[in-house]
Amino acid sequence: MNDILSVNHLSIGFDHSYGHTSVIDDISFNIEKGQTLCIVGESGCGKSLTSLAVMGLLPSGGRIHDGQIVYKGQDISRKSQKELSEIRGKEISMIFQEPMTALNPLHSIGYQVSEVLRVHQKVSKHEAKEKAIEMLRLVGIPSPEKRFAQYPHELSGGMRQRVMIAMALICHPGLLVADEPTTALDVTIQAQILELIQNLKSQFDMALLLITHDLGVVSETADKVVVMYAGQVVEYGDTKELFTEPKHPYTKGLINSIPKMDEDTEVLPTIKGSVPSPDEMPMGCRFVTRCPFAMEICSKIKPPKITDGHEVHCWLYSSEDVKGENPSVDKV
Ligand code: SF4
Ligand code: MG
Question: Which SUPFAM superfamilies match (predicted)?
């Protein structure tokens, strides 16, 4: 197998004085070398938390309760922060939604890019500066020698995101994690940044874990897609197959809500309702409160994983006898 990252049965929860809340429940997926995998779903489905877990950056109170995160054959889910800090930025890097929060306003951009290299590799200050300038040039910063000494506030949002990408890639990581990397940018800049990420991904032969709620982006960039709903994987497979033959009612709802160029629709269909909060998860299928195909069993028992071409977690595709107890399955 050529997996660079494999997430196996990962469960994450938060401990409180009054108990425990499970947020991510038994998710599994894998990314091969050089592949792009997108995680999609509405806000609150656990996409960002999954990406933070891969980085070993869970927010305080968050804990991995079960499962593994395996990077290049090593389980990194139980490593100490010290061990993780050697992997972060060097082997696995991340770019965030809002570059201003990730950049230090008190240091020049050149200093911040070269510092990443100096933390992970034994290079002289001069060599780090040369490489940082080269990297800034690669991400499309004009006149990087001059820009080197500028501070984050002197740059536009798009330029700051380019600096973040330079910091993320200067050590040539094997995996880049990007959480909604263009959401905070102007629409015109979004496409440029995505294209830049795609180009650098091929150039650096990295794998990409891209978190997005934009299915248009997914169809253009991803090799594989994980659809998450309320902390669980509901569908997982090759992009082309998933788009041409979506199986889960939630995935179908997401795909139906993409604007189509050739149709003059005024109102796009949306999925009614909202994602339940972790404290109010329905029993059985978590999508049951919003699903037009819900059957009796759906509110009682967690749907099984069915692999038919690709993976789907839904009672509609189960051949178990138990499904027969409700005739509404005919609706499909
Ligand atoms: Fe809908 Fe039932 Fe499938 Fe859940 S398991 S998505 S409620 S049909
Ligand atoms: Mg998020």
Answer: P-loop containing nucleoside triphosphate hydrolases (SSF52540)
Q: Which domains does the chain have, with CATH numbers?
A: 3-228 (3.40.50.300), 246-331 (no CATH)
CA distances to 126, 171, 177, 210, 241 from 159, in Å: 24, 20, 19, 20, 35
User: What residue type is assigned to position 142 of the chain?
Assistant: P
CA atoms within 13 A on the CB side of 272: 5
Residue 30, both tokens: 């894998």
Question: What string of pLDDT tens digits covers the 332 residues of the chain?
Answer: 689 999 999 999 998 888 888 999 999 999 999 999 999 999 889 999 999 999 999 999 999 999 999 999 999 999 999 999 999 999 999 998 877 778 999 999 999 999 999 999 999 999 999 999 999 999 999 999 999 999 999 999 999 999 999 999 999 999 999 999 988 888 889 999 999 999 999 999 999 999 998 898 999 999 999 999 999 999 999 999 999 999 999 999 999 887 776 666 666 678 889 999 888 899 999 999 999 999 999 999 999 999 988 999 999 999 765 554 444 444 33
The CB of 271 under 6 Å from ligand 1? The reply is no
Q: Does the structure's ipTM exceed the value 0.95?
A: yes
Q: 312 CB less than 6 Å from ligand 1?
A: no
* Residue with CA nearest ligand 1 atom 3: 314
- Decide: 271 and 290 in contact? Cβ < 8 Å: yes
Ligand at shortest distance from the CA of 98: 2
Ligand positioned closest to the Cα atom of 183:
2
Question: Residue 254, Cβ neighbours under 10 Å: how many?
Answer: 22
The reply to whether ligand 1 has any atom less than 6 angstroms from the CB of 303 is yes
